[in-house]
Design brief:
- There is one protein chain.
- The protein is mostly beta strands.
- The protein folds into 2 domains: about 120 residues, Sandwich (Immunoglobulin-like); about 140 residues, RlpA-like domain (Barwin-like endoglucanases), CATH 2.40.40.
- The chain has 4 helices and 18 strands.
- The strands form 4 sheets. Strands 2-8-5-7-6-9 form a 6-stranded mixed barrel. It has a 5-stranded antiparallel β-sheet with strand order 1-17-16-12-13, with no helix packed on it.
- The protein is elongated.
- The relative contact order is 0.21.
- Keywords: Glycoprotein, Secreted, Signal.
- It holds the Pfam family DPBB_1.
Length: about 300
């Protein structure tokens, strides 16, 4: 019921955007940003695992126990449609991942994706976080014991399976197997695994900002993608052209952040994002003045 409520809330938010904020801005000539950017880091060190009380991501070489299942197609990305948004206005169902990412079967995700349960999904603020997972041959003879890196793109609210629970794509679950034994491993059902939080490394890619459909001069929504390092984003702020201060965006759902403005927003926009370890990255003028909804705007910045 919790999962249904979450997805129902997501589709209601989506429908509201389309109906209420249907006006589009002008087409942009390109999605690049040649502007200057700033990168800042907290002084605190980061070692260990995520500490929800302190709000810091702490990485460690230690492994923690978890359980895992898989869903979707055996060699798929989880959702049968790869995370592409599809909504049925009559049934009010939604089949994209709860983070709002699309086409997760393409690079850089390459179907190596997973749902996380509540402590991992963190009400959407765990979206984009990367984990290494492995299963040991002592638990299943098909297990290779070799770590595989996955990214959180969805949620599974089942609280009975394990304290930490990954509902993985068929591809990522099978990747934990010895060569040629992927299909055999997928027959295991619920399986004991080990996991640890790791930094995301999107080689050759910078942070991408996808302006969500329905955005217009009075309403702006953006999906943050391919953030390296911590991977997950806990705050997004926007600065209009020639503005003297930043305006905080609200988390709409998953990796989507929005601003309901009482005045026409004036571009270009700079975006400031904060990861869950407190690192802050500024993409100056990344959204041009003639931006358009449903378009990607690649920045020239990335978390180190």
């Amino acid at each position: 019921m919790a999962a249904i409520s979450f997805r129902l809330a997501a589709i209601v938010a989506l429908v509201s955007v389309v109906v209420i904020h249907g006006a589009h801005a002008q087409l942009s000539n390109n999605g690049t940003d040649d502007s200057e950017s700033g990168y800042y880091d907290n002084e605190d060190s980061a070692e260990g695992i995520y500490n929800g009380t302190q709000g810091r991501v702490l990485f460690s070489k230690s492994w923690l126990p978890a359980r895992a299942t898989w869903y979707g197609k055996p060699n798929g990305a989880g959702p049968d449609n790869g995370g592409t948004m599809r909504a049925n206005a009559v049934l009010l169902t939604i089949t994209c991942g709860a983070c709002g990412y699309s086409k997760s079967y393409n690079p850089p995700f390459n179907s190596m994706t997973s749902c996380g349960n509540i402590p991992i999904f963190k009400d959407g603020k765990g979206c984009g976080a990367c984990y290494q997972v492995r299963c040991l041959s002592s638990k299943n003879r098909a297990c290779s014991g070799q770590p595989q890196t996955i990214v959180i793109t969805d949620v599974n609210t089942n609280s009975k399976i394990s304290k930490y629970y990954f509902d993985m794509s068929g591809t990522s679950f099978g990747s934990m197997a010895k060569p040629g034994l992927n299909a055999k491993l997928r027959k295991a059902g619920i399986m004991d695994i080990q996991f640890r939080r790791v930094a995301c490394n999107y080689k050759g890619l910078n942070v991408n900002f996808h302006v969500v459909g329905g955005s217009n001069p009075f309403y702006f929504a953006v999906r943050v993608e391919h953030a390296g390092g911590d991977g997950s984003i806990v705050q997004v702020d926007l600065k209009e052209c020639n503005a003297g201060s930043w305006t905080p965006l609200r988390q709409s759902w998953g990796a989507i952040w929005r601003l309901d403005s009482g005045h026409p927003l004036k571009g270009p926009f700079s975006l400031r994002i904060r990861s869950d370890s407190g690192k802050v990255l500024v993409a100056k003028n990344v959204i041009p003045a003639n931006w358009k909804a449903n378009k990607d705007y690649r920045s020239v910045v990335q978390f180190k």
